[in-house]
Fold this sequence. Notes:
alpha+beta, Fructose-1,6-Bisphosphatase, Chain A, domain 1, D-Maltodextrin-Binding Protein, domain 2, 2 domains, 15 strands, binds calcium ion
Amino acid sequence: MTSTRGGLGDELVDIATRLAREAGDMALAGRKRGLNEVSTKTSRTDMVTEYDKASESLIFAGLRTLRPLDSIVGEEGASHVGSNDITWFIDPIDGTSNFLYDIPMWAVSIGARENGEAIAGAVYIAAAGEMFAATRGGGARLNDSPIGCNLDARLDTALIATGFSYAPESRPVQARRVANMIGHIRDIRRFGAAAVDMCYVACGRLDGYFEENLHEWDIAAGDLIAREAGCLTGDFRGGPIRPVETMTASPAIFEALGRLIVESTVADQQ
Ligand code: IPD
Ligand code: CA
Ligand code: CA
């Protein structure tokens, strides 16, 4: 894997961090003033606010100006088909339910891929003033200090985060899996922002995280940040990470956590 230090990766991460900070601070200031436009998307609990849209517009405009040849995919519909190998994935507010309830656990997530391979990413938790960022081969940082995952984690004392799908029919299955797992680990967290969960594993605030049915914009930045911090990422059975099946963990528990997730699911179906 080639390091991108001093090259394209650094240019892209500078842009990602700048735009994530600008969009996150704008949304935070707006949330303090109050929300006026709140509506639903894929289900009665999948929400969008005026700040999801405003954040995406700000980032989209910035990318179009600074990187006019790149492609862009945004959760709220921003889309541009470019003419080079770079594609940006924007989650303008990851953790919209938290944002709606004024719980500070939400972030702006911006990830860039080159020919499908992650090259730069930024996740900005505006309410905490925390900027997670990484470039391919250049390591991961929190507010400019290098971060690393918990290398000495053990499954039976692991703190694991997960999430539950917006699709009502998937949620009982996912909850029963967690019920089957919880006696075998330290505890479960459900923070409500996938990108934050991945960054928390990256900096050792969690030992692992798994979730199903995400989208590319949820994981594009967080996956790179986690891997650059020494985490392993993949699906539950040792395959490559996919939005439909995402796991991020310390290498010390990665395989065992995958086995536990699979066994807990099977146990529920018997
Ligand atoms: C959601 C959050 C949540 C996860 C959902 C995501 P959104 O993103 O990351 O933690 O459980 O699956 O869709 O909708 O707030 O951008
Ligand atoms: Ca999201
Ligand atoms: Ca979102």
